[in-house]
Amino acid sequence: MGVNAVIAVANRGANPVAVHCMDNAYIASYDIAFHKAYTCAALKMSTTELKKLAQPGEALYGIQHTNNGKIVIFGGGIPIMIDGQCIGGLGVSGGSEEQDSALAEYARTIIQSL
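and the corresponding structure tokens:
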């Protein structure tokens, strides 16, 4: 894909447990990836799902201004689900929203195969 990304994993308490920074990834991608992982663990939904709910007139409009600004409302974050339970979150940052989302979805397939 040619994306120099940062991949962050948070546990069920939304605390960081792993981060991988690819060579030449944007420095800003570190915080963004972690905040995507935090968002998914804290809210038990993908950042893409949350994006829809956070639009003007929707149920969670303005949520990105809570939690000291750690809530992300654009794609690239997924909850890590095992047997229907959210055990954490994974965030990817470094490419476009579509690229980050595709990489996060790829991670979901890998996690589900374990």
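(Above: one complete record from the training split.) The radius of gyration is 13 Å.
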